[in-house]
């Protein structure tokens, strides 16, 4: 069957039998859209499938899943020579928190409308971030944020949704030990210090709706680095105030930087959450690929 000029939904296999997803697919097809559905077996198969779709002339791939699924599809598109031209990526948000989709303003509570948007609306150029060469569309977080994602039990996430991250995060915040490291920005002296939380945002939200990079926009050619220093747990009111004005030079617990590239050298390996996928690294090189994806939102 030809898939040229047809939207193709690449659906996370654990979501394939959800009644609300089947209903959304049927509704979109009834509206006259020839939507195709493919279900890869695992993460590796997802990459192979996207490459095959591109070879067959597909120009609109819809990532159906959470931020990790979106990352897998986006990574395959970015690594394809065609990703900067006429291939659009749509989003059907099916994860626990759906931070990227929420940050882009998609109606995450209405899967039929999300699927209709993904199938029909024009794509917009969106930046992607790179961490040590690995693609991320939304946020790379370390310290507190990564601990929350890594330690929130799957059954609790399934029961409470995004609130599970919030509840677990409130507990973890008071247990966190600071991480020491060095931030290196182009043409600036190295900055040393200790932090509880680090977030590098191509978009605003992570961890179930937290605005970890409140000034981040996905098409400005920059990444937003937010660092919460170790003294912050002693003054939550100051943290909230400074997050509302993160670029204020008088801030003392929040450091906020916007840059095209920078690096972080930690004293010990850090747990990093890269669009929902955990990695353990000590030296981090960040950069951005402006307009590398055409994303529908």
Summarize the structure.
It is built from nine helices and 15 strands.
Structure description:
- It is a single chain.
- By secondary structure, this protein is of the alpha+beta class.
- The chain is 29% helix and 35% strand.
- Strands 1, 2, 3, 4, 5, 6, 7, 8, 9, 12, 13, 14 and 15 form a 13-stranded mixed β-sheet that branches. The protein has a two-stranded antiparallel ribbon with strand order 10-11.
- A hairpin with a 2-residue loop joins strand 5 (123-131) and strand 6 (134-136).
- Helix 1 (19-30) crosses helix 5, helix 2 crosses helix 3 (67-78) and helix 6 (144-151) packs across helix 8 (163-173).
- The longest helix is centred in the N-terminal third of the chain and has 13 residues, at 43-55.
- The chain is elongated and about 60 Å long.
Give structural attributes.
297 residues; alpha+beta; 13-stranded mixed sheet; 9 helices; 29% helix; elongated
Number of helices: 9
Question: How far is the first residue's CA from the last residue's CA?
Answer: 28 Å
- Give helix and strand order, one letter per element, not per position: EHEHEHEHHEEEHHHEEEEEHEEE
- Please state the oligomeric state of the protein chains shown: single chain
Indicate the overall shape.
Answer: elongated
- Uncertain residue segments: 155-168
In percent, how much strand structure appears in the residues? 35-45%
Give Rg in angstroms: 19 Å
Largest sheet features? 13 strands, mixed
Total strand segments: 15
- Structural class category: alpha+beta
Mean pLDDT: 86
Helix content: 25-40%
């Amino acid at each position: 069957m030809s898939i040229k000029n047809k939207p193709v939904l690449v659906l996370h296999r654990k979501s394939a039998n959800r009644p609300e997803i089947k209903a959304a697919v049927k509704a979109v097809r009834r509206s006259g859209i020839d939507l195709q559905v493919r279900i890869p077996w695992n993460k590796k198969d997802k990459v192979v499938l996207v490459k095959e779709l591109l070879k067959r002339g597909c120009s609109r791939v819809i990532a159906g899943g959470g931020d990790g699924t979106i990352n897998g599809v986006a990574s395959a598109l970015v690594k394809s020579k065609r990703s900067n031209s006429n291939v659009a990526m749509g989003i059907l948000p099916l994860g626990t928190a759906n931070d990227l989709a929420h940050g882009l303003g998609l109606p995450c509570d209405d899967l039929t409308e999300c699927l209709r948007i993904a199938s029909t609306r024009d794509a917009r150029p969106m930046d992607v971030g790179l961490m040590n060469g690995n693609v991320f569309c939304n946020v790379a977080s370390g310290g507190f944020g990564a601990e929350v994602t890594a330690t929130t039990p799957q059954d609790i996430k399934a029961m409470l949704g995004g609130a599970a991250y919030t509840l677990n995060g409130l507990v973890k915040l008071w247990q966190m030990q600071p991480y020491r490291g060095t931030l290196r920005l182009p043409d600036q002296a190295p900055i040393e210090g200790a932090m509880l939380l680090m977030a590098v945002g191509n978009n605003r939200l992570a961890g179930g709706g937290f605005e970890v990079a409140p000034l981040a926009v996905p098409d400005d050619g920059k990444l937003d680095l937010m660092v919460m220093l170790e003294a912050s747990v002693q003054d939550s009111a100051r943290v909230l105030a400074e997050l509302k004005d993160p670029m204020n030079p008088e801030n003392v617990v929040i450091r906020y930087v916007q840059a095209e590239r920078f690096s972080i050298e930690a004293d010990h390996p850090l747990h990093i959450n890269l669009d929902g996928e955990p990695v353990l690294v000590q030296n981090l090189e960040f950069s951005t690929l402006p307009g590398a994806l055409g994303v529908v939102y």
